[in-house]
Design a protein that fits this description.
Elements (H helix, E strand, L loop, with lengths): L1 H16 L4 E5 L3 H17 L3 E5 L2 H9 L3 E2 L8 E6 L3 E2 L5 E2 L6 H9 L1 E9 L15 E5 L4 H12 L2 E4 L16 E6 L6 H9 L4 E4 L1 E2 L5 E5 L5 E5 L4
Parallel strand pairs: 1-2, 1-4, 2-3, 4-7, 7-13
Antiparallel strand pairs: 5-6, 6-12, 8-10, 8-11, 9-10, 13-14
Helix pairs in contact: 1-2
């Protein structure tokens, strides 16, 4: 059921926001697989000219495997649209991302897009961060600094931070950038914009999985087969 919900959200977003002659940011994760399949289908059927910028090794492989045009930020430093998934979305469209370990490149690509679109299934829809997602906020760190960063996180913000360990290799998860990931399990709701900025000021932190004030619209595939749309509200 969740897989079908992911597909519904992905297809709705691609059909609504993708047009001819665009530069698209392609996110990472399981929901993006459906978006790329739908994108490739539309490119073939409508003879669209689309250039794709990946956010990870996985995204790069998806683009190539589906016969789409691969490029990079050197050649296309400004994107029309970026489409990506999320681990959790609150009512203000704040996101937790990075469950798949690709948060830094995902944030770079989303940040240089004119419009950032998020696709997810019903399990990711929350009122506040931490309501559904219990694995913490991913924080990418320089390997030599993971111990002092861990201490700084818990001292300054409470909760607990753990080094993410790999499943099919000995030792920690290593990102596409050669860094480690800490998963910070917070114990209260924070002012996320302030906390995001403060964490990024800790020496050794590369990026956080908090995506604040970035998403324009989120498409949720629901259990009943519908698609729920949550849009950014004017401030």
């Amino acid at each position: 059921m969740a897989e079908e919900a992911k597909k519904l959200a992905a297809c709705a977003a691609v059909d609504k926001h993708v047009q001819n002659n665009q530069v698209l940011g392609i996110g990472s994760g399981s929901t993006i697989v459906h978006a790329v399949h739908r994108l490739a289908e539309r490119v073939r059927q409508e003879n669209l000219t689309i250039v794709c910028i990946p956010t990870s090794f996985q995204a790069r492989q998806l683009i190539l495997q589906n016969g789409l045009t691969l490029s990079d930020l050197d050649r296309h430093p400004e994107l029309d649209v970026a489409i990506d998934g999320a681990d959790e979305v609150d009512t203000d469209l704040n996101l937790i991302k990075g469950g798949g370990g690709c948060l830094t490149q995902e944030k770079i690509v989303a940040g240089y897009a004119k419009c950032f679109i998020v696709i997810a299934d019903y399990r990711k829809k929350s009122r506040s961060l931490g309501e559904q997602w219990k694995k913490g906020i991913p924080i990418e760190v320089i390997p030599m600094a993971y111990v002092p960063v861990t201490r700084a996180l818990t001292k300054n913000f409470g909760g607990a931070a753990e080094l993410r360990m790999a499943v099919s290799k000995a030792g920690p998860v290593v990102t596409d950038n050669g860094n480690f990931i800490l998963d910070w399990k917070f114990d209260k709701v924070h002012e996320w914009s302030e906390v995001n900025t403060a964490i990024k000021m800790i020496p050794g932190v590369v990026e956080t999985g908090l995506f604040i004030n970035m998403a324009e619209v989120v498409y949720f595939g629901m259990e009943d087969g519908s698609v729920s749309v949550r849009e950014k509200q004017p401030r």
